[in-house]
Amino acid sequence: MTINTSRRGFLKGAAAAGAVLLVGVRTDGALAATTAETAQFNPFVKIDADGTVTAIVKHFEKGQGPATGLPTLIAEEIGLRMDQIEYEFAPSDPQVYNNLLFGPFQGTGGSTAMANSWLQYRQAGAAAREMLIAAAAQGWDVDTSDVTIEEGIIKAGDNSAPIREFVAAASQLEAPAEPRLKELSEFRLIGNDAVRRKDSAIKGNGQAMYAMDIHLPNQMIAMIKRPESRGGLAISFDDSVSKEVKGYINAAVLPNQAGVAVYAENTWAAIQARDALEVEWDMAEAETRHSDQIKAEILAALDAAPTYNVNKADVAAVSAAIDKADKVIEKTFYFPLLAHAPMEPLNCTIEQTADGNIVLHDGSQMPTGPHMAYQQIFGLPAEKIQINTMLAGGSFGRRATPDADYQVEAGLTFVVTDRSRPVKLVWTREDDMRSGYYRPAFGHKVRVGLDSDGNIVGWQHQVAGQSIMKGTAFESFAVHDGVDHSSIEGIADSPYKIPGMALGLTDTPKATSVLWWRSVGHTHTAYTMETMMDLAAKAAGRDPVEFRLAHLADDSDSDQRRKAAVLKLAVEKAGWGNAPAGRAQGIAVHKSFGSYAAQVVEVSGDPETGIRIEKVTCAVDCGIAVNPDVVRAQMEGGIGYGIGHVMRDQITLTNGAVDQFNFPDYEPLRIGDIAAIDVHIVPSAEAPTGVGEPGTPPSAPALANAINALSGVHVAELPMAENGVNFV
Amino acid sequence: MALTLKLNGETHTVDAEPGTPLLWVIRDELKLTGTKFGCGVASCGACTVHVNGEPTRSCQTYVEDVEDAEITTIEAIGDDTIGAAVQQAWVELDVVQCGYCQSGQVMSAVGLLSENPKPSAEEIDAYMHGNACRCATYQRIRAGVQRASDILEA
Questions:
Q1: How many CB atoms lie within 10 A of CB A552?
Q2: Which of A64, A222, A366, A603 could form a cystine bridge with A692, CB 3.0-4.6 A?
């Protein structure tokens, strides 16, 4: 993999190789092509004089597959095999490499990488194809309609040439304004199960370079000594014992007093020197609460009238209908704080170049965040700051904070030095677990009324928890009329047709730093919705699948139709109702990030001696599955992530300090926890929607429903292992 | 102090204090970055190397304790027949996602197949228990080990 340290460098390198064809968009959004280095030109496709085609990938790769998916789009449109296209990560440029769904902001999140790139990257590839074809047509004196490109070979009748022969001529042409995109029927790579990941080999042989693997000449390692509880301020430090550590350099209180930076020659020296550092803290403003207080606040909020009537329901009428119902099911749910715990601990490396530029090397999920923050920290214009995006060892949301937390920390750690030595900021696993950002704790209280025929007559739903978006740069994007959509997504906007839905929300006071966590609000809303649907079906004496389908019966509504279709497919593939003796099945289906996923979990055992998860069957409709095997992998991983956490994980606080330290007390899903996962993709001609997150929401409620079917135990408070359900 | 390590078939002299975890000597001194730091407490397996052929957590192994041992890291495991089969299987099945734990997964898988050429699903689960993957690629790790076993048998 080529590491691209700056856009200018990359363009110069390309030009130096001789004739090149670069296709992309100008800042005005028009397709453009050039052979020269110009300020306004930034490509998605680079074709070197030797015919090497490179996709410039604007999304970071944390395993979810854009380093395969975006090259697939370009290779498809040009007419290449997958082994004829390379990839590089784009430089930071929010005008050109922005996420089209985020505005002028470059970033990856909300399962949007493919959805927002789908047309853009195909257009760039198609423009390159048309230019190559036009050049060949001129060269051979044939009509462009007679020229094709297949597997990197340009052909017209008896004429045939590899792409490289026409790169120079093509690069002299104007880019077509509206290149023709290939039809579904012409696709050879998109939707092809045989297409493999482009990053497999390097990740299996140790060659893959993550930000953690950077080793710049003369670099220092920095670690931050942080307060036990968030909000503590560093006053002073005593490093007399740290000085005994060989390789210790020095220490400095960060300008914002959020901690003390410890600098060392290598990582082990940094770890030891930081351990030995004594810091005097001002804890006056630090968090002091316990997690049981936070929980009590949330539960109290559920018992009070909600602040926001989210769906403008006639609450009194809904409540009255439920009061008069034949049967009423009422449940209170509680979801604890959760850590993301990506496998690669947070880190990034920062250096100043000879011309005074600041370069950040980072597995950067939202490059625009640190790019903006560094302009303030270093007092530099945007063009003097470069971000080199590297492979990221997982994220699950953690590498994208609205305040660019760890990149800002690195900036502050660097700005207080003389900048003669690059600084690599490294977090340990304990830093990640104890000083991080968390999926906020949430509570739900739901009352569902059924008539004597088992039909829902009212669904009163209250949600309480700490808003993720309020007070951040994303507030205007996600908060409307006071309601943080990420707190309640997947309830009232569910495709289910539920009569008499009343949804209320109350924000609870800030408990700790909170952040989106793979599938965001759906992590708790899907659990509540889908276990309540099961409990309602049970009370109505109806099959849980039939009961759900009855609320997805409107075939003219594509949302209901697609949700019903994944449900039916999952049920069919799982052999619903035919579990072997001693086993039970649970179902859940949920729409998130534009995609629909249904899962059947099959379990054996019992809650006391241990539940075993025998099989998970998943059906997903994500529109066109560009790389079907990547989609399957994302479902497998999303299921594991969802189930692993509800089984046994939570973050708790004592006196404001996180109680968990490392994996032994935040036990990750292990290989033996889920015996088998089977994923099926609904064929589709719709534009691609999300896959990184939609596998997660239905997994936990499907497990809960299976456990309830097996044992009659409904777990409404998580994690399961702390609430009466053991696992083997 | 100067220590001598036999790593990937070569002898290296390194400057490291006694008590330094082998992981940091491999990563920071020898600049072999395929061996990963994940937890530092031997509970995730990302740092797995082979010491005399045995999968070993390098984050909890003192460098002075392996001075006379043969150490193999992910960078050289492909020279081994079993290592090459595992890496081939990993690519065929696209086991990886973020990939950060996969060096350790491959090293453990090689250890398993070295002592048990035809492991059952249960035996794979038991042996690989200590190698965490936050992306939850476990299904494919299990299939990858079985595929590597088939490759070796062929």
A1: 22
A2: A64
